[in-house]
Amino acid sequence: MVLHVALTVTSGLGSVLVAVIFAAFGILTVTILLVMEGLSAFLHALRLHWVEFQNKFYKGSGYKFTPLSFSNLMNK
After folding, report:
1. What confidence tens digit (pLDDT) does each residue in 3-37 have?
2. In the chain, which residue ranges form alpha helices assigned H by DSSP?
3. Terminal C-alpha separation, the chain
């Protein structure tokens, strides 16, 4: 679909147009992949910083978890 315009040209300019469009498509594809990979690495590092930073302020105060039990509810 991308190369359809260049492939319909019947003159000698068609092969040059195919090469230019293919190069532009390849550069755009690699650019998008690099941006996505960089964003993925950035978000992973940001998440790790957030988890490690928030862990400094955790206090384990509270009450012990007891799972829901209908028999315990009926006895009360």
Report:
1. 776 677 777 787 788 888 889 989 999 999 999 99
2. 4-7, 13-55, 70-75
3. 70
